[in-house]
Amino acid sequence: MSQQLKTPTLIDVRGPRFSATITVIVLAIALATQNAWVLALQAVVFAIGAIRGPQFTPYAFIFKRVVKPRLRGEVVTEDSRPPQFAQTVGFIFALLGLLGAAIGSSLVFGIAVGFALAAAFLNSVFNYCLGCEMYLLVLRIRTR
Q1: Per the domain annotation, does 3 fall within a domain?
Q2: Which terminus of the chain is more solvent-facing, meaning fewer CB atoms within 10 Å of its CB: N or C?
Q3: What is the pTM of this model?
């Protein structure tokens, strides 16, 4: 049985970086205040990005409607699958943080949120998507 290759969805590369900047702010607030509700809101954003794609998150909506029309220059696009995988990884860390909050472990909460925050910071400040790199590594391993 042959598989049909699905054409990847292309997204503006600046969108995920913008989203990462908002994510850094939200996760920093969650970490500084130890607020599980703030983390739960971010978990919803991660879930949308993981399930539907990063182009469907509320942050992507803000980017498309407010930021992108004001940007100039060539629009460079990328495959949406690596950022979508990164959203999945972020969602897993958010769930771990929420589990930590539910069992009363501020250590688990802090470590999980800290890892997600560090990854978002790398993307926001240095344009280095750790989850995207993980996706590419998994892809290379699977194709061997």
Answers
A1: no
A2: N
A3: 0.93
